[in-house]
Amino acid sequence: MKVSFQQSNAAIEPIALIIAQERTQEVETALHILKELSTDSSHLLHIPLDMISGTYHSHGSVLPVSSITYFYASHKKIFARHNRQDWQVNLTLKMLDTKLDSQQFVRVSNSAIINMHALVRFDANLAGSYAARLRDGSQVKVSSRYVNVIKSRLISHL
């Protein structure tokens, strides 16, 4: 089966169209998968995400998830920090939160998910704010709501 993508600025939502001479088992399987994705794909979300596609200055590439230091939201877009570059990705943080390996990635705020393997230091200041320092020099604010989650993950890794 050939697969292609066509971008259209006129599209309001994605449309999947299968063109075939007949309705074969391969077509039925593809239709079933697409129908599941468009309705309730929660049962598919337990499959860990190993690779993710991203765009950096109009250049698209597939990135290994393990090399991403963190994901974050900015201006209603989602970015992956990879090799000190911010790649735009087409998944929401909520989707990433469910698809990423929970042993490796942890939510630290409503707008960020960090790679625990990239964590160098967890800082707290006298004002009561927290930050995660990552191996690429990035500093990510940790919301007080998520501090106990990070602390328990750090303790469990000792």
Automatic annotation (TrEMBL):
Per UniProt, residues of the HTH LytTR-type domain are 52-156
The keyword Transmembrane belongs to this UniProt entry's keyword annotation: no
Q: Which UniProt keywords apply?
A: DNA-binding
Q: Which InterPro entries match?
A: LytR-like, LytTR_DNA-bd_dom
Pfam families cross-referenced by the UniProt entry: LytTR
PANTHER family from the UniProt entry = STAGE 0 SPORULATION PROTEIN A HOMOLOG (PTHR37299:SF1), TRANSCRIPTIONAL REGULATOR-RELATED (PTHR37299)
Please identify the protein, giving its name as recorded.
Answer: LytTR family DNA-binding domain-containing protein
